[in-house]
Structure prediction request, 556 residues.
Amino acid sequence: MEGKSVAGRIHEAIHRLTAAEKRAARGLLGSYPTLGLAPVAEFAQQAGASSATVLRFVSQLGYKSYPDFQRALREELEERSKSPLQRSHSAAAQERGDSNFLDRFVTQEVDNLRSSAALIPASEFEAVCARLAENKGSCYLAGGRFTDFLAGYMEAHLRLIRQGVRRLDGRPATRADQLIDVRAGDLAIIFDVRRYDASLLDVATELTARRAQIVLITDEWMSPVARFAKLVLPCRTEMGRTWDANGSLFTLVEAVIARTTELSWPTASKRMGSIEGK
Amino acid sequence: MEGKSVAGRIHEAIHRLTAAEKRAARGLLGSYPTLGLAPVAEFAQQAGASSATVLRFVSQLGYKSYPDFQRALREELEERSKSPLQRSHSAAAQERGDSNFLDRFVTQEVDNLRSSAALIPASEFEAVCARLAENKGSCYLAGGRFTDFLAGYMEAHLRLIRQGVRRLDGRPATRADQLIDVRAGDLAIIFDVRRYDASLLDVATELTARRAQIVLITDEWMSPVARFAKLVLPCRTEMGRTWDANGSLFTLVEAVIARTTELSWPTASKRMGSIEGK
DNA sequence: CTAAGTATGAAACTACTGATACAGAAGTTA
DNA sequence: TAACTTCTGTATCAGTAGTTTCATACTTAG
Prediction:
């Protein structure tokens, strides 16, 4: 429906409301927006009115049905939790104006890191590292326009730890060649953040056809590659409204490398020794 | 039935979930808790699974019905909005002391980021960005074994903002060729962390001879290139005793890019438009 | 004080949501 | 490869939530 917030509509319409309807409004504002997400009967009881009154109240706000009203509440909630994260410190710092650009940037990045750590199930993270440490089969890496450098960075480190690390480079033509050798059970790590790269989806399709297992490292909006992925590690990337930052992906990569090194230390240490030697 | 947060249950149960159920889990974590407050059909569609799978998923979490699950979500939401700051995941995890590898890693990285921001004088940071935003002369980038990917990442972004961005690739032989065109007043951004790269020192020497201005991005132990640098941005990289992490460098790079974009918006926006167009 | 109009909740209705059963797909093992 | 297990989506059903109706209580005006 229109671009007005639900709370805004209540304040606008509250004068038109009847006594019982006002109780409903008060109740909703009192525990906003949770009460509105409950079934009508519960809303009614909590607000001290009947179901019918609540329905009339919702109708007065301009929603054509109760589900419609709930949808608006959910969208509002979603909006709020996605955009300018944590008004607490970053906003406070901006108000004081005593912090410079770098401080503000770092503060936001810290939020992203924390959220990312919370977003990623420990078991998924461990599964990825364990799989890498197994040191079986090949491990392919691919990324999009900017994330390709993350793939490169990860590749450079993985090469020290295990064998069979291959990079899928950006040009679709050569990619096809590189995919020929993919065997069932091989591992593929794909980086994809929005705007998502169509060619990566193709690569993922092909990899799946060849029965490779895909690990996807993506942002909170979840690349379409997720459909094909056995394991997904989603990171928070949003900064303010104009900018997405990949710092959380980078840190995740380093964490994976660190953990994998730890897990495969006996093997990896020999390997690293021989590489360093030359 | 009570006492556990829904997100907590997901992390607990995720290992015994099937592939499609995991999609549901990820979907919910991705837009938490809103998606769970929607009707099953919508949840299912958004998560890329069927209604039945979503039902099985919530059943796996230990809820005896979908409405029951939604009630839990609402109560959690209510709880969170009442307490001042959300202490939901990170705080609780730290209290329990059961934090996993990723959490610990992220915590250390956060320390590094904060220290880095403190270590870098605002004036130096601003000077670098301003110099980049001037958009005069050429800008060369070079890095060492691993940091070369940071140089590449920065190059890819800088190209969108300004003209004359060049990358000095890793092979000493070709580097010499690329340095021929360097002119007085050109800018060079060098990444160097320990163990410091001897060839970068050579490059820096040559650049200085040609009167280019060097910006050095390095770690807390300070690359020897610092001798030749006009501006130095040192970052904290130390993690525990065995491992150095470059995440702080990466975030610094992104901060520089963001700030430079901001400073040169009138010029940069046109440029970006024309690049996106093709 | 009475009558017209409005507000309200109880109860009936219907539509849609959540639950279930089943069949086919996918994956696993021998 | 074939048999078997497990997973997953479709189709169906049952129950509940949202909606509507209507009789009653309350206001307000005449």
